[in-house]
Design goal:
The protein is of the alpha+beta class. Helix content is 64%, strand content 17%. A hairpin with a 6-residue loop joins strand 4 and strand 5.
Length: 392
């Protein structure tokens, strides 16, 4: 046992192992920086745009960007490490260094062994992020979004501008607007014009003033119109209905839609222990998603070594493209399985582990292909078929 440990330590600290790890770390940070710059830069631009549109100070939205960064960093880390492994192994073959190493008895198994310290370190970091840091970030993000929405709950209704609600079913206009109570979300408006539909019949509502509020039971957002007239039907139609009212409540945002979104965000913000104790489809889906992300690093690291083999005369861009496609299929498969569990269409026992099993099968096929065992089997089958034809 002691000799085996010394042998492992000797391999890990060999000049070749340190050379491969050094190249891997350099490529990893370069790829991580590029992907992070693109992704987080895009999020920052969208946040600035939202700040301008909603009239919310940018400094109040900046914490949301940091919480999104914590949420996405595990995905970027996995992709960066995977692509870095492919490029590192490809460079070895491009520079004919891998050929020399193979002549010394070093093959894919040794390459996988050499990069294991970095892979295990990435596994630990992603495990900590997905189990502890990301749920905390989602929870803090939900709290901050709720505070921001309460502070500017009705800032999307701007005086002197037409606003659209319920995917274009309601068009609203107010000449003046003033917040009454930002805590409970009340806002007073004057000179109201509303164009809507009731059973495919056009409805025009005119009111002297309106108050916007949130129903405490349904969480729906309503407009309480005062001293107005409601016209239903086409103006040239004889069957037009005219209704004069003192008070008239109109729902502009459904509470069911808001609650359905809140359920998913609440699940994402719960701690891992709470998900284990809670159970249910959504909790099981979220729990499996958190546990799956660290394991993807282990599987992708081995696949990356196999995909990294390239001919010195060929282009390494092909292997990189295949790696991106494999990564996208892998993570999209996990997301589809997660969604199926949430909707009750897939047994949680199979769940996301079925996707990992398929990736292990793909890994086994790649290994067999690299060892030329599949081609040998096919040759044997073809020879067997030829012999049968000759005897026939």
């Amino acid at each position: 046992m002691q000799k085996k440990l010394l042998s492992i330590f000797k391999y890990q600290n060999s000049l070749i192992a340190r050379y491969i790890r050094r190249n891997l770390v350099t490529l990893f940070f370069a790829i991580f920086f590029i992907i992070g710059l693109v992704l987080f830069g895009n999020q920052f631009v969208l946040m600035v745009q939202e700040s301008v549109e909603r009239g919310i100070p940018l400094q109040e939205l900046m914490p949301l960007v940091s919480f999104n960064m914590i949420r996405d960093v595990s995905l970027i880390l996995s992709l960066s490490l995977f692509l870095a492994i492919i490029l590192t192994i490809s460079q070895l073959y491009k520079n004919s260094e891998a050929v020399v190493m193979n002549s010394l008895g070093l093959n894919d198994k040794h390459f996988i062994f050499f990069i294991q310290p970095l892979v295990i370190l990435s596994f630990i970091i992603i495990f900590f992020l997905t189990i502890y840091a990301v749920p905390w970030a989602n929870q803090q993000k939900n709290i901050r979004e709720e505070e921001t929405n309460n502070a500017s709950e009705f800032s999307f209704i701007t005086e002197g501008e037409f606003e659209v609600f319920k995917q274009g079913e309601i068009v609203f206009y107010a000449s003046e607007s003033k917040s009454l109570n930002t805590i409970i979300g009340e806002q007073n408006m004057e000179e109201i014009f509303i164009y809507a539909f009731d059973n495919e019949n056009p409805v025009i509502v005119l009111a002297s003033e309106a108050t916007k509020y949130i129903d405490s039971v349904s969480d729906s957002i309503y407009l309480r119109l005062k001293d107005g007239v409601r016209y239903q039907g086409i103006p040239s139609n004889d069957n037009i209905n005219i209704l004069t009212f003192d008070l008239y409540d109109l729902e502009i945002v459904s509470g069911e839609l808001q609650n359905s979104v809140a359920i998913y965000t609440e699940i994402e913000g719960k701690s891992t222990l709470d998900l284990i104790n809670e159970g249910g489809h959504q909790a099981n889906a979220e729990l499996q998603w958190r546990l799956s992300q660290p394991f993807t690093v282990l599987i992708l690291s081995v696949i990356g070594v196999f995909l990294g083999k390239a001919s010195p005369r060929g282009g390494k861009g092909v292997n990189l493209l295949i790696g991106v496609i494999v990564f996208m299929l892998y993570y999209n498969g996990l997301l589809l399985a997660k969604s199926a569990i949430e909707l009750g269409r897939m047994d949680p026992i199979i769940g996301l582990w079925g996707v990992h099993f398929l990736m292990l099968v793909l890994l086994l096929l790649l290994y067999q292909f690299r060892q030329r065992k599949i081609s040998n089997y096919l040759d044997k089958i073809s020879i067997f078929n030829k012999k049968e034809k000759i005897h026939a």
